[in-house]
Specification:
The protein is an alpha/beta fold. The strands form 2 sheets. The protein has a 3-stranded parallel beta sheet, with helices on both faces. A two-stranded antiparallel ribbon has the order 4-5. β2, α3 and β3 form a beta-alpha-beta unit. 21% of the residues are buried. About 3% of the residues have low confidence.
């Protein structure tokens, strides 16, 4: 048999390529950017499974990413691979709430199946309320939305608002 070659200063050692390590903000931003070219009348949803943490140095900030989601009417639905703390699933909750989406626990097979079922159900059953604003603006303005119902049955989930831009 042959002899094993021992690496020396002149023998390059090859390692396996490292996988891309994108942070949560950048992953959601890129998904939103891809969906932003879809027609306005199409429903746009980002479905993400994550622990809700945003480690690393993102290219896109949370605010920049959330603005892109709200501007393009994109909802975020998440399944958390981590246990929620104090009713929150980290950044997943911070993206889902304002966009009208939701986050479900996914820490077991059963909870993951339940989450997929609930998200599918929410995606299928949605009422869309619209109105035409008579407000005018000479710059982009964030307008908040507050939705109330007469009945306490059911749950109302809505985005926190929208960006109004000047009419051109």
């Amino acid at each position: 048999g042959g002899r094993a070659q021992i690496p020396t200063a002149s023998t390059p050692v090859k390692s396996a390529p490292r996988p891309s390590n994108r942070v949560l903000h950048d992953a959601i931003y890129e998904a939103a950017a891809a969906l932003s070219s879809q027609p306005v009348e199409r429903r746009k949803i980002i479905f993400i499974i994550s622990d809700g943490s945003a480690y690393g140095a993102p290219k896109h900030s949370f605010k920049e990413t959330l603005d892109l989601l709200l501007t393009n009417d994109i909802q975020v639905f998440g399944v958390s691979a981590d246990f929620g703390r104090a009713g929150s699933y980290g950044k997943l909750s911070e993206y889902a709430g304002p966009t009208g989406g939701d986050v479900y626990p996914g820490t077991s097979t059963q909870s993951m199946e339940t989450a997929f079922g609930r998200i599918t159900e929410q995606a299928r059953n949605q009422y869309i309320l619209t109105y035409v604003s008579n407000n005018t603006t000479d710059r982009g303005v964030f307008r908040t939305i507050n939705v109330k119902t007469r009945s306490s049955k059911g749950t109302v989930t809505h985005r926190s608002g929208y960006m109004q831009y000047p009419v051109r």
